[in-house]
Amino acid sequence: MLRNFIVLPFVLLALAAAQQPNKPAPGSAADLAQQADKLSNQGKQDEALALYRQALEKSPDSYEAHLGMGEALDLKGDYAEARNHLSKAIDVAPADSKSQALRAMAVSYAFESNGAKAEEYEAQVFDARLRKGDFVPAGETCNELARIYLESGDADKAYKWYKTGYETALRKTDLLEADKNLWLFRWESAQARVAARRGKAEVAKGHIPAAKAALDKANNPDQMRFYPYLTGYVAFYLGDYKAAIADLQKADQRDPLNLALLAEAYEKSGDAAQAKTYYRKVLESNAHNPTNAFARPLARKKLAGS
Questions:
Q1: How far apart are CA 147 and CA 161, in angstroms?
Q2: Which pLDDT value is given to residue 21?
Q3: Low-confidence ranges of the chain (pLDDT < 50)
Q4: Quick one: which H or E segment has residue 222?
Q5: Predicted model pTM
Q6: What pLDDT does 23 receive?
Q7: What residue ranges do the domains of the chain occupy?
Q8: How far apart are CA 255 and CA 257, in angstroms?
Q9: Contact 68/36 with Cβ under 8 angstroms?
Q10: DSSP characters for 201-243?
């Protein structure tokens, strides 16, 4: 019995060590890239870029360094240089990271509201997932591209890709009923937002009850925050800024696009001080994703010189 108590801690330590990911050697390219990632996430892009450059001096084909550098440059607004590094990241990406690199390039084009170029890269991810029969991830790729198109001002292309996303996800034969309703909520929400962007008030408002009914059936508490975003979004693009503010304040306050809409709603309501407060909150986000790709350039432009 005594021997078992002595051996057990060593066994546990060995198991714990085996479960931990291998840490890169201090000072290696991988280590420098990880340090740079943390700095960029903290909003210290200049410091991050210096470390990414050091990493690339050690390993010119480092996928992590090229990807991270491209994303940091996008956050700084240096889009052309960012895409040079993201292109390299695509070239050197391991097979299981290829989709990540392609989506990062699509987001880079979203920073400049270039939906057509974003589609060139998102479509590659979509096709690869479709070939593997990964219908839900393929549908999610469609929705990501659709959102890029919608926020770029192309409602027709957005509608096309949202519809494709919904139909693709439903091709999964064993999709749970709750998940079917979640995808129905997304599709109804998409139709409402597209209609609002087209200025079709009655159509937009007509999809909102259907979206709510599907969301209730999905019974997914984590998704509930998207309903006030939907109603706030529709209200904003239909010109009801008071209602937009009330609803968007109930939505995800970590979502930079939600914060940007709030800022614009306050601005259009004549409250410049509150607008600036929310534009500043937008710039606290250092995510490299479609929502920040649209929110960050807007906030930077609105706060220029203030």
A1: 9
A2: 57
A3: 1-20
A4: none
A5: 0.91
A6: 85
A7: 24-92, 252-298
A8: 6
A9: yes
A10: HHHHHHHHHHHHHHHHHHT-GGGTTHHHHHHHHHHHHTT-HHH
- Cβ atoms of 187 and 163 within 8 Å: the answer is yes
Half-sphere exposure of 120 (CA within 13 A, CB side): 8
Q: How distant is the alpha carbon of residue 10 from its chain centre?
A: 42
How does DSSP assign 129-180, residue by residue?
HHHTT-HHHHHHHHHHHHHHHHHTT-HHHHHHHHHHHHHHHTT-TT--HHHH
What CATH architecture applies to the domain 24-92? Alpha Horseshoe (1.25)
What is the C-alpha to C-alpha distance for residues 52 and 32, in angstroms, rounded to an integer? Answer: 7
Judge contact between 59 and 24, C-beta under 8 A: no
Burial class of 269 by CB neighbour count within 10 A (0 to 12, 13 to 18, 19+): middle
| Residue type at position 119 | E
pLDDT at 31: 96
- Given a contact cutoff of 8 angstroms between Cβ atoms, the answer to whether 101 and 90 are in contact is yes
Give the Cα separation of 82 and 157 in Å (integer): 26
Query: What is the tens place of the pLDDT at every residue in 34-79?
Result: 999 999 999 999 999 999 999 999 999 999 999 999 999 999 999 9
Q: What angle do CA 203, 206, 208 make, to 5 degrees?
A: 120
Closest CA to 158 of 193, 208, 206: 193
From residue 110, alpha-carbon distances to 53, 152, 292 in Å are: 25, 8, 9
Contact indicator for 158, 149 with CB cutoff of 8 Å = yes
First-to-last C-alpha distance (Å) of the chain: 72
Long-range contacts of 46-49 (CB under 8 A, 24+ apart): 46/76, 48/72, 49/73, 49/76
Burial class (CB in 10 A: 0-12, 13-18, 19+), 98: middle
3-class DSSP string for 181-204: HHHHHHHHHHHHHHHHHCCCHHHH
d(CA 208, CA 176): 23
Angle 293-296-300 (CA atoms, 0-180°, nearest 5)? 145
